[in-house]
Specification:
- By secondary structure, the chain is α+β, with helices and mostly antiparallel strands.
- The chain has 3 domains: 65 residues, no CATH class; 35 residues, no CATH class; 92 residues, no CATH class.
- The chain is 17% helix and 37% strand.
- It is built from 4 helices and 15 strands.
- The longest helix has 13 residues.
- The structure holds zinc ion (2 copies).
- One zinc ion binds next to loops.
- The site of one zinc ion has 8 residues, from loops.
């Protein structure tokens, strides 16, 4: 489940049994499960704020990609003016529609195959890892247009706040070949520190 007001996914820590709320940038891997075709289901791992461990959880495509921009009707917020709990969904859905109509996407990533910035989705993030720069996260992201895998370095806010885009995209300008050793190659590239960057035309 997703808290659209705080931009957090809700999980249950298996060690403490407590609820934990983690932003997209705290996820570490996202993998589509084979077989579950409709709706697609993903196995994610996340860094736990309750016990500092890393856990796995299952999320649907709707949980990952849709709830952050168009939450379910059941999500409410306490309106301080009226003192009533009011639904969040209509307002956020309206905002999303207006943005999409203007050509603003909730998430964008640089594609090293196409040498261009492309729209993306949380479910397309194969791996996420902290970098040596505080607040910056390295991601291996599968392009929504051509399916190539690229390495981007993005701010936590770029991931956690839909429709916010880093003014500058940082990336490794050659695709990450799929197959065995992807995680090792991703980690190696991330720590080699040789990144290109350019202005993101999607940034406000
Ligand atoms: Zn935990
Ligand atoms: Zn692409």
């Amino acid at each position: 489940m997703y808290d659209a007001l705080r931009n957090r996914y809700r999980f249950t820590c298996p060690s403490t049994d407590g609820n934990v709320e983690r932003p997209l940038s705290a996820l570490r891997s996202i993998e589509r499960l084979a077989g579950a075709a409709s709706p697609p289901v993903y196995r994610v791992t996340y860094g736990c704020a309750a016990c500092a461990g890393e856990h796995a959880a299952l999320l649907t495509e709707r949980d990952l990609d849709v709830d952050p921009v168009a939450p379910r009707e059941s999500t409410t917020f306490r309106n301080l003016l009226t003192g009533r709990d009011e639904p969040v969904a209509p307002e956020l859905a309206d905002r999303t529609e207006r943005k999409l109509r203007r050509g603003v996407w909730p998430w964008t990533f640089y594609c090293a195959c196409e040498h261009d910035v492309r729209p993306g989705y949380p479910s397309r993030l194969a791996r996420l890892a902290p970098t040596r720069h505080p607040g910056l996260v390295g991601v291996a992201v599968r392009c929504a247009a051509c399916d190539g895998v690229s390495i981007n370095i993005v701010s936590e806010r770029h991931l956690d706040e839909p429709f916010y885009h880093d003014p500058t995209v940082r990336f490794v300008d050659r695709p990450l070949a799929p197959g065995a050793g992807l995680v090792e190659r991703f980690t190696h590239e991330l720590w080699s520190g040789a990144f290109d960057h350019e202005r993101n035309r999607f940034a406000a």
